[in-house]
Amino acid sequence: MLNSARYENISQRNAAMKPFLFVLFPVVISFSIVGLLWSITALFFARRKRYRSPLVRHLLRGPGYSLSKQIDVINENVDSWLVTLFVFPFVFLSSYALSGAPGWLFVAFGTGFVVLSLAKLVSSFRKRFSLRLGLECEMAQGQELNQLMQYGYRVYHDFPADGFNIDHILIGPNGVFGVESKGRPKPKRGQGGEDAKVVYDGEKLCFPGWTETKPIEQAKRQAIWLSHWLTEVVGEKIVVYPVLALPGWFVERKRRDLPILNGKDSGFITRLQTDYALSEQLVKRISYQVEQRCRDVEPNAYEFRGKNK
User: Fold this and answer.
1) How many other C-beta atoms lie within 10 A of the C-beta of residue 264?
2) Average pLDDT over residues 73-79
3) How far apart are CA 228 and CA 158, in angstroms?
4) pLDDT tens, residue by residue, 134-144
């Protein structure tokens, strides 16, 4: 009889503790994971503080630098949403166990939250694909334009202007060129070369299946801005010629008013005839001003104690 009563008391205590354990377990797991991650991060940064960067000045921007930073932000957002989705079931179950709210209310809330999270993830993935294409095309075009250095050109990438950036700037004996790169995917329609050809008629770009005018307008608008800025900082009139780049596309130009590159034959720039030839001294003065803006990437592997520029 005594053993039966003791067994009944133990059973009652266990039954009373089950809801508590049901709530406590996910909380302990969540905090354990966070604590472990925090400890590893703290240890890493503590060891990192023992050294400093060997570099003494900021780095120049590479092709697509701004796009790569945008992609980094999206990756961080994606990671945050994934972590939230991982932790959410634990928090959800704990809240449900402690609350006296109807079950359907929790189901509705949980379903809505999961749908919202998945929508955010899909949107981020789509934007990241678009930015990645732009980044890859800017890198391809930038690497090709770097070949112009062997002809005496100064080549800069991702020039930060007022609220926008100019993808590439070329400074050489035959003038200053502002290059706007655009990444556009090719359709797979099974029409061979026609799927890879874009026609420029002087007003618009005719891709297979769609047309665009904004890249043309953007290239010309940025060249005008850069011309005004350089004229002001250099102290004499500087003309900037707009150039459009469509890496990977076969470009048919029906008008020759706008140079269009396709990611190959960067030497095409050296053959352009312009009305504003630059002396070697003027090339250096222009390059100095452009480099001051492009050299703004701070090394961050270790503590940096170099100059601002």
Assistant:
1) 12
2) 89
3) 18
4) 999 999 999 99
Residues 6+ apart with CB under 8 A from 25: none
pTM listed for this prediction: 0.79
CA proximity to 205, closest of 173, 253, 162: 253
Q: What is the 3-state secondary structure (H, E, C) of 242-295?
A: EEEECCCCEEEECCCCCCEECCCCHHHHHHCCCCCCCCHHHHHHHHHHHHHHHC
In the chain, domain spans: 51-309
Q: What is the CA radius of gyration of the chain?
A: 29
Per DSSP (E only), the strands in the chain are 154-160, 165-172, 175-181, 197-200, 205-207, 210-212, 240-245, 250-253, 260-261
**Which residue carries 């170099």 as its tokens?**
306
- Does residue 173 surpass a pLDDT of 90? yes
Strand ranges of the sheet holding 240-245, from the earlier edge strand across to the other edge: 154-160, 165-172, 175-181, 240-245, 260-261
